[in-house]
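>> received
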Amino acid sequence: MNHWSRFDVLAICSRLKEISSGCLEQEVVLFSYLACILLLYTKKSATEWGYFFNGTEVGAPYSPDLKLAIDTLLNEHKLVKGEDDLLSLSQEGEDEYEMLKSFYVYSFREPMLEGACASALSIPIGLCNEALAQEPELKEYRSMGRKFRLLDKNGGGAYDLLYRQLELVYEATKGDQDLAIPATLWMSWLTKQSQSDARL
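>> returned
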């Protein structure tokens, strides 16, 4: 199993418990994808994230590595799924996360994961989902009805548009190190785009 995806599932579930009573599996993918986008904001390549994302036929991000990590943690009883399908960490899961986050190898991920999850303090999780649906690659390829690789710098115009959006956010925030700020700003703008599209 990909150790990066395992760490991310633990980190996201631990953080989102401060905001809600748990999170859906797709929300774990959503915030991991947003964290990877924040890696682009910091002028690094998405390949450094350690695993990739595909776009599904309905235009949502998906990662087989995250799916495997979630299933494995559930089997190990470090992740618990309630009757409402909300995921939460058991005490064993929290203990593993506390141990892993002390390792230097994971330290570079923490600002992106923190920024992504903290954005849910300003934007409700449901709206985060709607906002990311306006992300250029997801928006462009949703109409194609097929799977595709996301955040690929050779992906063409949609990737270029995403990168340009992140450059504008970087300029507006002056490269703020608190990544919740650019995450919230960018997703607020995407939310307005979604509302504008809905009025058309």
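>> Strands lie at 54-55, 61-62, 79-81, 87-89, 148-149.
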